[in-house]
Write a structure and sequence with these properties.
This protein is an all-beta fold. It folds into three domains: about 10-75; about 80-155 and about 290-325, Immunoglobulins (Immunoglobulin-like, Sandwich); about 160-285, Sandwich (Immunoglobulin-like), CATH 2.60.40. The chain has helices spanning about 10-15, 215; strands spanning about 15, 25, 35-40, 45-50, 55-60, 65-75, 80-85, 95-105, 115-125, 125-135, 140, 145-155, 160, 175-180, 180-185, 190, 205, 220-230, 235-240, 255-260, 260-270, 270-280, 285, 295-305, 315-320.
């Protein structure tokens, strides 16, 4: 659950080879920005994963320099968890926080063992970097594990833009021009002071273009962002979403142009993108605004390690959305 290496042999969880050359690739067609599209899937003829758990996939170039890594969670036969989401019970937190209750009930006559170590991982909007781990349930019996008062800041709805039609402007796209590649200038975003309901994809992005083979005919554009905040921030502000794996790096840092005004640009492939602005903190990041009404997706993953086990096994999973949050 902490993404550390387990004390088990590779042959116990992998069938085949885990060092594989990616041979499925195509070159872009009719695009101003030339690129190569690689495709890799699991399982395949050379690799199968035998047991559930947390896995890290790393991709390297021909000089063995790491290009990126991604974390995936594989679950098989599990107990279903139930997540209830309400407004925070504490008065001081109620304007901006959400409270979760998570229950796992045993339906297969298998006992939740008092000698086992249980860990509950809560993932908000598929962002592992803002996930939380809870060790002690409020109630544990042989047939039930109950966790209560799991508090998360509500955050804000994701902002979005759609560059499927790369030459067109829209309610999100202010201007499009061309210089070596397309430049897509978005309207200025403003830090929210009151909650605004806006349907989103909870941080997801969808590559899309007006052509048949979207993986090789979609073009890239330099997307230009701008943000006006309600106050001055001493710490750096970043753009995050699933498109950049919610990474806080120099590539996604906003540049302060004037008092309470920031700009940034990122080269992105055509498609529909969710994004938001966050402030860097010592322990990660914090959203600019928080509201208890915000629609968020929560996933609860239950791990168990028995006395005889050498690693934490995934035994439970639950998922819910706060679109019908109870006040």
């Amino acid at each position: 659950y902490k993404w550390n290496s387990s004390n088990i042999s590779k042959f116990e969880y992998v069938e085949g080879f885990d060092d594989i050359r990616i041979s499925d690739y195509f070159f872009s067609q009719n695009t101003f920005q030339s690129y190569t599209n690689f495709n890799f899937q699991i399982p395949n003829q050379s690799l199968k994963i035998k047991i559930d758990g947390n896995y890290i996939i790393r991709v390297f170039d021909h000089n063995h320099n790491q290009i990126f890594e991604r974390k995936i969670i594989i679950k098989n036969k599990i107990y279903n968890g139930i997540i209830n989401i309400t407004r925070s019970k504490e008065i001081k937190d109620s304007p901006y926080s959400q409270n979760l209750q998570v229950t796992f009930t045993n339906l297969d006559n298998v006992i939740f063992n008092s000698t086992s170590d249980y860990k509950l991982l809560i993932v908000k909007n598929n962002n592992l970097k803002s996930s939380k781990i809870f060790s002690i349930p409020r109630l544990q019996t042989g047939s039930k594990l109950f966790y209560d008062n799991l508090k998360f800041e509500g955050g804000t709805e994701y902002l979005y833009f759609d560059s499927k039609n790369i030459l067109l402007t829209s309610n999100e796209i202010r201007q499009v021009d061309f210089e070596k590649i397309y430049n897509t200038k978005l309207y200025t975003d403003f830090q929210e002071s009151i909650y605004t309901r806006q349907p989103d994809l909870n941080g997801t992005f969808i590559l899309n273009a007006n052509c048949l083979q979207k993986n090789i005919c979609a073009d890239y554009s330099n997307v230009i962002f701008s943000l006006r905040t309600n106050k001055n921030y001493e710490n750096d502000i970043f753009i995050i979403g699933e498109f950049n794996n919610n990474i806080l790096s120099e590539k996604y840092k906003m540049k302060k142009e004037a008092k309470n005004y920031y700009t940034g640009d990122i080269v992105l492939k055509q498609g529909l993108y969710n994004y938001k602005y966050v402030v860097k903190t010592k322990n990660g990041f914090k959203e600019l605004s928080n509201f208890w009404q915000t629609e968020n997706n929560y996933k609860a993953i239950l791990y168990e390690k028995k006395i005889t086990d050498r690693y934490y096994k995934i035994i439970g999973f639950g998922e819910n959305n706060s679109n019908k949050i109870v006040n």
